[in-house]
Amino acid sequence: MRLRSYRRHEADYGPYDADLGVVTSDGVRPLTRLSDFYADPASWQQRAVACDAPPLSPGTFDLAPPVPPTAKLLCAAINYRSHGEETGFEPPKYPNLFARWTACLSTDGTEVPVPVAEHHGLDWEVELGVIVGRPLYNADPDQAQAAILGYTVFNDISGRVNQGRANRQAKGQWALGKNGDASAAIGSDIVTADALDADNLRLGTRLNGETMQDGNTRDMIFGIAEMLAFASRGLTLQPGDLLATGTPAGVGVGRKPPRFMQPGDTVEAFVDGVGSVVSRIVAAE
């Protein structure tokens, strides 16, 4: 099943409200408000199977992030062997997770400004996003696997100047380099966990049509369920929380010479069977 988050042009929404619909051969059939869905995902998934609402008319809605504003966004660093090799980092002994803020989420076609500090430009990092469908605390991998709602595409657009400053500190942090305005590009579709094999998915990026990354989730160091279980031993994961599972080789900072996105560039991140998200890079002002 494929679900899609959107905002209807004529609807009366709060600042963070959105709707969720079922994608069928004839369009998007409205299901419920996003907040209601995540209050009881299992029940709404059952209702989605039988959803027979008339499809939305094309051009009457905009895409929206498929996670609630309360979502925790956890991201895995150096979780692909090929990416560790290109950046010179040793494979981690346990999942290395950092956080993003929902305020920096953006959807397909959104403009992403280059922060003033990032004088070289911005980098790209395609990732498979995993959305949690039930509460998880102190879970084992089997429980974590069963709690997966589905998958989306994620582009962890990064500011390497700020991130590099953090890396050079004994106790560094990545917050500024990983939370630039609109820099967490996310697909609006959720492909439910029963619909694909997440352990064998091609994913990549294209910059102005040129392939930059072309990898496969087989290259992950830590599996999805393993990372979710690991995270659940430190905090409670709730429905709608997102795990971005790391990026394969081909990022700009790993190239010789390094290459970064500049105003006027367009980047597309894609995951086969899941979807794609396109971002337009613009100047900060």
UniProtKB/TrEMBL annotation:
<dbReference type="InterPro" id="IPR011234">
    <property type="entry name" value="Fumarylacetoacetase-like_C"/>
</dbReference>
<dbReference type="GO" id="GO:0016787">
    <property type="term" value="F:hydrolase activity"/>
</dbReference>
<dbReference type="Pfam" id="PF01557">
    <property type="entry name" value="FAA_hydrolase"/>
</dbReference>
<feature type="domain" description="Fumarylacetoacetase-like C-terminal">
    <location>
        <begin position="73"/>
        <end position="282"/>
    </location>
</feature>
<protein>
    <submittedName>
        <fullName>Fumarylacetoacetate hydrolase family protein</fullName>
    </submittedName>
</protein>
<keyword id="KW-0479">Metal-binding</keyword>
<comment type="similarity">
    <text>Belongs to the FAH family.</text>
</comment>
<dbReference type="InterPro" id="IPR036663">
    <property type="entry name" value="Fumarylacetoacetase_C_sf"/>
</dbReference>
<dbReference type="InterPro" id="IPR051121">
    <property type="entry name" value="FAH"/>
</dbReference>
<keyword id="KW-0378">Hydrolase</keyword>
